[in-house]
Amino acid sequence: MKVAFLVAPEGVEQVELTEPWQAVIDAGGTPSLLSTTGGRIQAFNHLDKADTFEVDKQVGRAAVEDYDGLVLPGGVANPDFLRMDEGAVSFVREFFQTGKPVAVICHGPWTLIEADVVRGRKITSWPSLQTDLRNAGANWVDEQVSVCTDGPNTLVSSRKPDDLKAFNQAFLREFQTVSA
Questions:
Q1: Per-residue pLDDT in tens (0 to 9) along the chain, 180 residues
Q2: Cβ–Cβ under 8 Å, residues 127 and 158
Q3: How many CB atoms lie within 10 A of CB 39?
Q4: Among the options 83, 100, 107, 160, which is catalytic?
Q5: Which of 90, 97, 100 is nearest to 156 (CA)?
Q6: Which of 106, 133, 148, 155 is catalytic?
Q7: Is 107 a catalytic residue?
Q8: 58 phi and psi angles, rounded to 5 deg
Q9: 75 phi-psi bin (left φ>0, alpha ψ -120 to 50, beta other)
């Protein structure tokens, strides 16, 4: 199971990157860190700088067919930066077009809104995104984890770091089905 983690050069919520990353490794999978630039990305613990992480590949050089699934961690700034990068938005959109599963948490759905892939989909997120998601045509729900199969792919979503255990279990179950 090969899983792409797409993040901006700065602003990703560290725990929303590291816990799902470790869950992929623990499940025998291979995570890969993609970003809009090479080098290292700067993670955050809410608004405070945390650790940096080496980028495996720039998203513009990555191919969707090389991955079984995509994880979009949150953080307030991370998805805002990603949705301003057409290469990142196109990469996300292609996962939906090719029917591959996507998992998103917290503020991550902002990138999905920009990719125009939430219309008619059930999704959860950090509560402040509910109006944005509804305006983009999504059915926003306040649940620990949501798994939506009503669309071209499976969409797993979660609200916040407190939901990570349920999020990790749900997206791994869906990703392992595809990679089997």
A1: 999 999 999 999 999 999 999 999 999 999 999 999 999 999 999 999 999 999 999 999 999 999 999 999 999 999 999 999 999 999 999 999 999 999 999 999 999 999 999 999 999 999 999 999 999 999 999 999 999 999 999 999 999 999 999 999 999 999 998 766
A2: no
A3: 10
A4: 107
A5: 100
A6: 106
A7: yes
A8: -75, 140
A9: left
Bridge partners, 104 (sequence order): 72, 157
The amino acid at residue 154 is: T
User: Catalytic residue at 46?
Assistant: no
Buried b (16+ CB within 10 A) or exposed e, 117-149: bbeebbbbbbeebbebbeebebbbeeeebbbbe
Rounded to two decimals, the pTM is 0.98
Record the tokens describing residue 30, joined without a space.
Answer: 């291979």
